[in-house]
Amino acid sequence: MKVLIIGIDALEYNRVIEWDLKHLKLNEFGKTRVPISEGFGEPVTLVVWPSFISGSEPDVMGFDAPIIYRQPLKFILEKIYFPLISNNKPQREHDVSIMEKTTVKNKIISRTNYILMKAGMGRYPERKDIKKPTFFDNPDYKSIHHNIPVYDAVFTTEDRDSARNGVIRAINDKEFRKDFEKKLSEELKIGSENVFKHLQNPSWDLYMQYFYVLDGIQHVYYKNKLKLMDYYMKFNEFVGRVKEKLPNDTLLLIVSDHGQENGLHTNYGYYSSNVMLGLTNPNIFDFKTIIENKILKK
Ligand SMILES: [Zn+2]
After folding, report:
1. ∠254-248-271 over CA atoms, to 5°?
2. β-bridge mates for residue 69, sequence order
3. pLDDT, tens digit, for every residue of 244-292?
4. d(CA 43, CA 51)
5. How far, in Å, is the centroid of ligand 1 from the Cα of 200?
6. How far is CA 271 from the centre of its chain?
7. What value, to the nearest 5°, has the Cα angle with vertex 69 and ends 63 and 73?
8. CA 35–ligand 1 middle distance (angstroms)
9. Cα distance between residue 289 and residue 287, in whole Å
10. What is the DSSP letter of 22?
């Protein structure tokens, strides 16, 4: 059978339930377990997605933090410095806003990372850093993938810096916020058009399309419930249309790397499948084998 994966960054389980987004609730759905990056205290996009596509724990996959440091610096930072300065208590209540969080530990970590990267001591991960084969690399079937973090997208230090500063600036600056949202809407439009293009010509066995938009929207508009609802509805409607155009015998899988509450990442992801998989609170690493077996009819 074919497999279509819609990767939606930061899709929150609680919002899907609260707003009863029926197209996002396929035949089987629930929370997933995702890796939490040490020192960051939360799941991070640049680690969770490579773990998902390679079906491996971060340290086996190749990196467990969103920045690759040179040794022995890596050891010192990850084992001593970050645990020392970070508040590693799980933030169950999410009672601090992203701005407060930014002023406490993340500001120090961000600043440290920025200086180290400028000094050439650290860099963002690239495809070559993923040491395990991903489900796209299986030679026994045809894969298409668009926009997959790390695997497809190459982030420069400047890109990530402007993305991060973009979120902070968009919270405070009304004019900038409009441009920020416009860029994200554009991503949703281009990505969904891409999906329909590939649904019209399903010459693939596995196809994954990734969307960043919901992460940025929730970081910036976390107090504006109507705005959040608007974007969740857009994804709900998009998946509804995808279901209508889905080729026969195709597994549709919606996956998120983490959710968000009050502008902060939650410590679990989300999955939703049109085929009953019989999973309970699966680990995000579990899906690679399931996907490959479905395609190869094992
Ligand atoms: Zn985020």
Report:
1. 15
2. 122
3. 999 999 999 999 999 999 888 899 999 999 999 999 999 999 999 999 9
4. 11
5. 32
6. 12
7. 120
8. 14
9. 6
10. T
Distance 49 CA to ligand 1 centre (A): 13
Q: How many Cβ atoms are within 10 Å of 90's Cβ, its own excluded?
A: 11
Residue keyed to tokens 């997605």: 49
Q: What is the pTM of this model?
A: 0.88
Q: What 3 state SS string does 204-266 have?
A: CCEEEEEECHHHHHHHHCCCCHHHHHHHHHHHHHHHHHHHHHCCCCEEEEEEECCCEECCEEC
At 83 the three-state DSSP class reads helix
Phi and psi at 278, nearest 5°, equal 70, 30
| Residue 68 β-bridge partners | 123
**CA 203–ligand 1 middle distance (angstroms):** 33
Residue spans of the domains in the chain: they are: 2-295
* Statement: 2-295 belongs to CATH 3.40.630.30: no
Phi, psi of 71 (to 5 degrees): -75, 150
Q: How far apart are CA 254 and CA 16, in angstroms?
A: 12
Backbone φ, ψ for residue 261 (5° rounding): -130, 135
